[in-house]
């Protein structure tokens, strides 16, 4: 009792303080503060004789150097019947050793200098990164350049990578969300290489020679851009890049990935999965970053679902109706095309109701657009997120490099703020009407229809795509 009494005495000032300050607090949205200003730092650009383009930003706060290289190589170029070549090529570049050291020895050398090298393969590009202390930059660049230029794709590492990928594919069906999103991308990119998926069979079809040929085809100085930030001066860095990568002469195929030739049109698909929850996805083709509609669609997406708690889908489908565990939207924009999607992880019994609620929200965007308060909230939030996303020199220099990589104007980042601020009510309604059309709508439901309170036929005529996304076949 004495102890509880003492706690109460100490807490009284705290509660009084809270009560006092509570009288002074106001709605955060009503707080007036100076406009945020954003001016991206100028970065240096150098082009080497062999075609490598280097972007650089000095940062002497810490004795670190970060390097990000991007090559125009991705799963888009997987040969039919051997889907997965790009992913394996990137992975075994990192693990399979070089002409001068084994993969295990490479790991040991990195451990000695506390260096990190990572490789990530996407649909349209491959990213390679190096992080190292400034004092070990030479050794880090030596290892990184050797891996980039001279991978040997050791047979045992290829076999290991294949077995790991096959096991991962077999486990995909254990993850309903991953299965649904994987199948969704296949459906929305039908007839396009972006929609082709790897499977156990395609991975088994791949040989070591396929990886070596893929690397030879796509990895070359004219197909590679590099962004560096850190504790090194520009003249010194240029000299080091010239030393380790200047003699790289492999041609590498100069690639330019086209946008999807055409979208497949409307479809409604059902993927069976024995689960008490359902995953619903509805998607549409959307504008790319070079399209003037891009900025209005960014705002539309934020209002519809990517804005979190205050977005329409989250607020209506999850909070008010209680139909979903998680719900929202996403907008993925490339330079010349984009994909918009709305999703929900819902109770099986609420599947059709949740899907109907999402479609009602999209209909409202087409018919009435956005309200004044949510429009201003969305634009303010987007700009705050945009400005504060440039939190590190590495992010700043990499984003500047990606402007050129994507063929966007040099002023894209500087103009972004003004272009978002210009978005008005009519713009939102216009892009909603232009892109969120039922004739382009792709709907996928993953779940067990026996658990649904309403049949899928009450929403529309669905095609059955089987019980898996084909990963284990």
Describe this structure in words.
The chain is 44% helix and 18% strand. Strands 1-2-6-3-5-4 form a six-stranded mixed sheet, sandwiched between helices. Strands 9-10-8-11-7-12 form a six-stranded mixed sheet, with helices on both faces. It has 473 residues and is α+β, with helices and mostly antiparallel strands. Helix 10 crosses helix 13, helix 10 packs across helix 16 and helix 11 packs antiparallel against helix 12 (351-368). The N and C termini lie far apart (67 Å). The protein has two domains: 44-245, Metalloenzyme, LuxS/M16 peptidase-like (Cytochrome Bc1 Complex, Chain A, domain 1), CATH 3.30.830; 267-464, Cytochrome Bc1 Complex, Chain A, domain 1, CATH 3.30.830.10. It has 16 helices and twelve strands. It is globular.
């Amino acid at each position: 009792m004495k102890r509880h009494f003492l706690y109460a005495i100490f807490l009284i000032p705290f509660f009084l303080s809270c009560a006092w300050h509570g009288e002074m607090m106001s709605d955060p949205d009503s707080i007036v503060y100076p406009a945020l200003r954003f001016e991206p730092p100028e970065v240096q650009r150098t082009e080497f004789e062999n075609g490598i383009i280097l972007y650089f930003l000095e940062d002497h706060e810490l004795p670190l150097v970060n390097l990000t290289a991007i090559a125009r190589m991705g799963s888009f170029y997987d040969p039919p019947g051997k889907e997965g070549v790009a992913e394996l090529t990137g992975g075994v570049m990192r693990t399979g050793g070089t002409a001068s050291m084994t993969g295990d020895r490479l790991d040991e050398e990195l451990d000695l200098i506390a260096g990190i090298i990572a490789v990530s393969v996407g649909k349209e590009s491959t990213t390679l990164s190096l992080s190292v202390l400034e004092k070990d930059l030479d050794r880090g660049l030596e290892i990184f350049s050797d891996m980039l230029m001279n991978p040997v794709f050791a047979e045992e590492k290829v076999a290991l990578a294949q077995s790991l990928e096959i096991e991962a594919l077999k486990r995909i069906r254990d993850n309903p969300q991953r299965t649904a999103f994987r199948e969704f991308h296949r459906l929305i990119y039908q007839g396009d290489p972006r929609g082709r998926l790897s499977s156990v069979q395609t991975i088994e079809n791949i040989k070591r020679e396929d990886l070596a040929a893929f690397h030879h085809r796509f990895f070359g100085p004219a197909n590679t851009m590099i962004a560096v930030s850190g504790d090194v001066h520009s003249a010194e860095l240029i000299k080091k890049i010239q030393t380790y990568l200047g003699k790289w002469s492999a041609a590498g195929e100069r690639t330019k990935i086209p946008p999807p030739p055409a979208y497949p049109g409307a479809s409604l698909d059902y993927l069976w999965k024995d689960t008490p929850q359902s995953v619903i996805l509805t998607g549409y083709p959307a504008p790319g970053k070079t399209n003037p509609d891009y900025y209005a669609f960014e705002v539309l997406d934020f209002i519809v679902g990517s804005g979190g708690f205050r977005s329409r889908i989250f607020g209506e489908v999850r909070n008010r109706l209680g139909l979903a565990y998680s719900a929202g939207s996403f907008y993925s924009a490339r330079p010349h095309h984009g994909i918009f999607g709305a999703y929900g992880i819902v109770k099986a019994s609420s599947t059709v109701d949740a899907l109907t609620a999402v479609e009602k929200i999209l209909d409202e965007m087409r018919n009435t657009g956005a309200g004044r308060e949510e429009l201003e909230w969305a634009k303010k939030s987007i700009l705050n997120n945009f400005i504060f996303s440039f939190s590190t020199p590495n992010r700043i220099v990499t984003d500047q490099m990606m402007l050129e990589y994507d063929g966007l104007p040099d002023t894209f980042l500087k103009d972004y703020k003004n272009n978002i601020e210009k978005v008005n009510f009519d713009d939102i309604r216009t892009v909603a009407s232009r892109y969120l059309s039922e004739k382009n709508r792709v709907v996928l439901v993953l779940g067990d229809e026996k658990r649904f309170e309403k049949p899928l036929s009450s929403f529309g005529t669905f095609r059955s795509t089987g019980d898996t996304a084909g990963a284990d076949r």
